[in-house]
Amino acid sequence: MSNDKRDKLYADRHDMIVDFVFDESVANVFPDMIRRSVPGYDAIITHLGLFARQYALPNTRLYDLGCSTGAATLALRRQIQVTGCEIIAVDNAEAMVQTCQQNISHDKSLTPVQVICADIQDVTIENASVVVLNFTLQFIAPEKRQALLQKIYQGMVAGGVLVLAEKLVFNDTQKQQFVEDMQMAYKKANGYSDLEISQKRTALENVLVPDTMSTHVQRLEAIGFTQIYPWFRCFNFAALCAIK
Ligand SMILES: C[S@@+](CC[C@H](N)C(=O)[O-])C[C@H]1O[C@@H](n2cnc3c(N)ncnc32)[C@H](O)[C@@H]1O
Q1: Could you give the CA distance from residue 220 to residue 150 in angstroms, rounded to a whole number?
Q2: How far is the CA of 115 from the centre of ligand 1 (A)?
Q3: Distance between CA atoms of 123 and 24, rounded to whole angstroms?
Q4: How far is the CA of 67 from the centre of ligand 1 (A)?
Q5: pLDDT in tens, 104-121
């Protein structure tokens, strides 16, 4: 973590804030950016490994959808206990895919990994025992989320697990204010200035559209997942698992 390049993308005042994109400048600082912005990120990554340990079945696939620089892929890969598995890591940002590929090449674990540059909405999901959407669904257009999750469900084996981590929004305005204040405090404690926080928030406004926890749960139920468990929560960030 200490070797990560420091995120200073919004440190200087921008004349115009454009919508956030996962380009090369973001890929270069991404591990630092996500750790200093998302409370609980490292804990979630560690626990993704546990899901691989518990749910990966022999001769199946594990998918990391929206893999960025590969932190979740590596967590899965290092914990798989069965043979014949393959990990498919997908991201539609070329710079992320390249960095992910490099990070995987330095890892000595045995499970083969295919890193694919594609829109996760276009990728075929098949024979999946573990599917990870770690802070990715929130970047898919809200009206397309159901179809994506439906496709994932259809490509999963019985007993397989979908692990979904997301930023949440709350209907209760007081609760919403509380979690926003706490995330702001988290970012400030991690060295971000008021200017950085405010410019980044504007850049993400139309790009990251969070759902409520009940929207997530109801959608997963409607799709047919038999067991849905929220297993992590820190302010406005949460992770659920859904078992087929
Ligand atoms: C917040 S990052 C995910 C973090 C990553 N999963 C991790 O655990 O470190 C969101 C990623 O999703 C990717 N993404 C967003 N929309 C996508 C899409 N439609 N298809 C593929 N990747 C997408 C972005 O390029 C970005 O790398």
Answers
A1: 9
A2: 13
A3: 23
A4: 6
A5: 999 999 999 999 999 999
